[in-house]
Amino acid sequence: MKVPFLDLKTQFKTIEADVRARWEDVLANTSFILGPAVREFEQEFAGFLGCKHVVGLGSGLAALELALRTLDIGPGSAVLLPANTFIATALAVSGVGATPILIDMDPRTYNIDPAKLTRFIEQHCQDDGSALSVSNSCPLVSIRGSLPRAIMPVHLFGQPTDMDEILAIAARYGLRVIEDACQSHGARYKGRRTGTLGDMAAFSFYPGKNLGAYGDGGAVATNDDALAEQIAMCRNYGSKKKYYHEIAGTNSRLDSLQAAVLSAKLPHLDEWNAARRRHAERYAAGLADCPQVACPVTAADRDHVFHLYVVRAERRDALQAYLSEREISTGLHYPIPIHLTDAYRDLGYQEGAFPETERAAQDMLSLPMCAELTDAQVDYVCECIQAFYAGE
Question: What parts of the chain have a pLDDT lower than 70?
Answer without folding.
Answer: 392
